[in-house]
Specification:
Elements (H helix, E strand, L loop, with lengths): L2 E4 L5 H17 L3 E6 L5 H8 L3 E4 L5 H8 L4 E4 L7 H18 L3 E6 L10 H16 L3 E5 H20 L2
Parallel strand pairs: 1-2, 1-4, 2-3, 4-5, 5-6
Helix pairs in contact: 3-4, 4-5
């Protein structure tokens, strides 16, 4: 049974990822879901636990807590915090990638931004680009997804659902 770890599960991007996977898990029971949180006792974390996900107290700056959360994980969904500042966001991503490689995570999906490689005047674009470069050097299997692609995908899914409901 594949094990998937979600970063940011109590936020918007990670929250959407884990809710989609929890929905799949409720129908198929063929995946094990984990998420990291700084506060496993929070209401939002407990809601995910009650739905079948396993909470791990971890911090993207703390290798040991990440090691505990990532051990036994096959796939991971990584969101970094642009509000942490350029250097700290880069450190978050690189630390996560290093520990993932160390414990044998097979695949990471990292949410970035489009034009991260060319928008050199935007600090959080530079940090996402640095994290993307680290993934390219360290991962055998990875996807780097721009945020707007996730938005377009969500819109497309809503479009398909509306077509199914209304028979168009």
């Amino acid at each position: 049974m594949p094990s998937i770890l979600i970063v940011g599960a109590t936020g918007k991007q990670g929250g959407k990822a884990i809710s989609t996977l929890l929905d799949h898990q409720s129908k198929n029971k063929d995946i094990s879901l984990r998420f990291i949180t700084r506060n496993p006792d929070s209401a939002s974390a407990q809601k995910l636990v009650n739905q079948g996900a396993q909470a791990f107290k971890a911090d993207l700056f703390d290798k040991e807590s990440l090691r505990q959360a990532l051990t036994g994980v096959d796939r991971a969904f990584l969101v970094t915090d642009a509000m942490a500042g350029e250097e700290k966001e880069t450190q978050q991503g690189k630390t996560f990638i290093d520990v993932s490689k160390e414990v044998g995570v097979k695949h990471i999906v990292f949410t970035s931004v489009s034009a991260a490689d060319t928008a050199v005047t935007v600090p959080h674009f530079r940090s996402k680009y640095e994290v993307s470069l680290s993934m390219g050097r360290c991962r055998s299997s990875a996807n780097i997804v721009g945020r707007e692609i996730l938005d377009r995908f969500r819109s497309y899914v809503h479009y398909l659902e509306a077509r199914r409901i209304y028979g168009e």
